[in-house]
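Entry:
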Amino acid sequence: MEPFDSVFNHLVLPVKLPNHKDPDPEATGAAILTRLKNACQVVAKDTGDDAWSSIKRCLGKCKGIAEAHFDAQHLLQDWADLRLDDLCLLRISEQNAALLIRRDIQNEEHFVIFEVFETSPSAKDVLESANALEWDFPGRAAQIPLHVFQHASFQENMSRFLEQAAQEPLHRFAARARKAGATPVESRDTTDPGLLTQFLMPILEATGQSIDTPKLRKRVRDDVSISSADFPWRREPSWLALRVAVQRQLCLSMGNECGRASYKFLICTMLARLLKDCVGGLSPDMTFVLRAKLCRRLAKLEQEKSKASGSACGVYQKLFDTVGVQCEDIIGKASRQIESAWDNFKRTTTRRIPLLPSRANERSLYLTLPRSGDHLRNLLLQSPANPANANRLDLSLPPLEKTVVHPVSELAARYFKLADLESNVQQQPFLAANDSDQAGQSRCLAIAESIFVLLAIDEFKSYTSKPDQMSLFILRVFELWVGMDKCAVKVCRLLGDYHPLFPAEALDVLHLADLSAMHRLQEVQSYLKMRRNSCKYPDENILCRPSTNCFAARYLQEDENGRPMRQLLEKIEEHSAASRAAKILEWEKACREYDDLSEKISSGTCVCTFNSDGSRSVHGCAKCYHRRVRKRMTIKVHEDFLPAESAQKSTVVFELGIPPYLQAYRHATWKVLHKLGHPGPALKASSPIMLLKSYSQLEPPTTGGRL
């Protein structure tokens, strides 16, 4: 079945386009080719010009339009039947190029001319263009003597080369993107046609000579539409290749002016037949867009007719009398269908307001109350009220939630909870001078947990409007942080070489009312100043990015407790090297299998048949089977388990084996900075694609990973 919507989008190029690539580009190309053949048949029947015979032969034998690949044997058959007025069109989709091959006679010598051009512009050029791109076709041309072209070895090598070029993309000519200093392949952009324009054409020029053929200038319209899909929507390159080939052949056969007029009417015929099929199949607005496009083309042809020369004016008049009349008839039917659909829409959407009667009927003057009967009967059945209890007061109190006292009690409960937490935290013991490293780690973890508890509750936000209370809260948090930092520095002396992250001057703004709180603040600030003055790297802290002097790199290389991490690093690198070697063996095996399949494809012959509906039957064709097997071949990418840069490598290993007390210290430091250091909520950032603990290549052996 024809992908009608896809064909409409590529031929008409409406404003609203899909946000993803067509699911079956080959089916779309085949449908466009079929429509162009039908339009060519109509115009040839009406005009009776012999030039259309060569156009029909060209469209019947073109390669790379309905199917991305083609067989070298079929090319040899087409080249054997190549006549003087024939044109061979080859679209090499993997190289983003098309090749036109035709014969020519110059000074009674026979030549074969090769013309190559690009079939799809780059996304950058399309997005930068305000309207349409102006291209000259062909991009490059060369000619060789006919006897050289007819040589068996030349045709054999040429056909194999084109067959392979249509099947295998080359990364050398692929589009590139720049990301993090690298240039990976950008699969969403078009390929550079350099394999044909810069490799094949120089060989042909050396075999024959370079020629300057008459240029054909066209306005190329395209779009790049992408939303959440992997690949954007782009206009079908086959449509551009077909248009260039047809107009090129018509201009060569009929002359530039007459050929251009015939080509324009051919496109009008194709759009008119599409409009005829659109009526009732697409929405009226899409039909209206196509009708407007067809009318504009016919109006431009009317203007060109008035400026045409004598011989061309006769061609214009003949085409208007035949093709133009058919187009006008289709436009009239489409207009009537659009008007009918519009009238029907207005009838179905118009709100009908009924007339109100001048007087209400008798039934409308009575209230039926169908839902009130049971309630009224229950009221009648109730016993009469006792007069003795009429003056008794109701001593029951309303629920607490409905009184003014409730919000006050909630506020008090919040402050009581916060005060209890601060009191419990204040009783947290700090590090003693004779404590062991194990005790220091335990107390560092305990103090960090206390910081998490204080900063995790929402009640401390109640202090926002009370500077004095908030100042005491911040002071208590920093007292805890100082105690935690002392424990961490005692266990890991390397931590003292780095900036404590918090400047002492940042606490000068605290509002403290009593002398004891000021003394506490002075102790905290004195410690922060001491840490800042004694640090070896004043521009580095535990939260800095990986660098040569970052904490993670120096801990792994210099700290006495970093030996397990160094052993882990060696183990990861050994596993990475083993995985890389295994992947190389797998890749070499796949390359041998790929070459074997390619040899079978090259030496085989396609024996596919075609069904009555035009579909291809591949049953029994070994060549197509080997081609499908080769196309399904895949290999997973090997990625080194660790980055190549030393500091990044050390940081990754540090994250894998970080001691719990340092992890808690760093997390608590970040919490204090995040909760108290920002004047408002932080900007929303995108979520990371993957966490380090989710990276399968670095999972520990206890979870079934590779290490």
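The beta strands are 87-92, 97-106, 109-118, 133-137, 140-145, 209-210, 216-220, 609-610, 616-617.
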